[in-house]
């Protein structure tokens, strides 16, 4: 990427793992909470990484960044999670330069989501880019790329029906409850965790189950109260978690803890209990399955649920891909201009030096020298000349590298950088 004058490093990488090859347990080991994200970013700065964007959701953990070798980014990830390099190599992917760019477009546009057309990742990407910018780890290339991906995502949302219908992890969980439990409207439902997935699940519960026995618990009670107020639901203290579990029929866990928050020891009731774990890492210990009255369903199972809505969405993939190609082409055109931007800038400075010298000569020669008019005319000529060279360099039929070398040689701009 050096030839584009955007980075000291030669390569732009996307490294990571997703639901495609890594199961929930492995994804949990490589997940990054807010503290570990900050630690990774600080370590990147210490390691002189120039620009990177880090995303971590229930379906994937990825780093987009510049490096001389992908291992620099892989090491950052492994140093700040519970995952190892050996585990990473078994399930991971590494994309470089144009492939890495294309991958970010697919991810941000919902085409690589576990549920096709789920655009949750784009908000994560925006948030991650904002964090990188705050720490000085978002160079012009990365910023431009993220903005292009956001643009593609918006166009796909508005110009296609790929996200039509209510299909998401939160809806899939409610759909599973409706298909599995009889008389849902009369069952006691406990939602533990009111983050983004928890909030979305809560809305779907209220909308589709017609249930008036929904209780919310969150470690930070006021967050649960804000949601409860919107839907007129009951909120209980975190200290009452065990008591509430033992009086509920359906437990939905959407917490963001790094280790299980629910295990068999806090379940004392012998009544049938359905537990849905929507968390990555898993927040419900597998040992609850040892209890005969408990049925445990994890997010990965819910995400595999396909219905007519998903089949309809697949029809819109070609149009979505054409939108991505359109926006990506614009981005690549901008990228190509970065090749010659420093040379055009240097040329403009050189021409300006000529202008200053010539105006100084004419100023001494002419008693009625019109300074203002000469300045305007000179600047216009300089702009026309540099524009002419810029248009020439954009021509697909010419060799940009050879033309750059010739311009530098003729105008004695700088030492040749042909091999950089």
From TrEMBL:
The record marks 103 as: Important for activity. The keyword Oxidoreductase applies. Residues 320-413 form the Tetrapyrrole biosynthesis glutamyl-tRNA reductase dimerisation domain. NADP(+) binds at residues 193-198. Substrate binds at residues 57-60, 113, 118-120, 124. Keywords: NADP, Oxidoreductase, Porphyrin biosynthesis. Homodimer. This is Glutamyl-tRNA reductase. The lineage of its organism: Bacteria, Pseudomonadati, Bacteroidota, Flavobacteriia, Flavobacteriales. The gene is hemA.
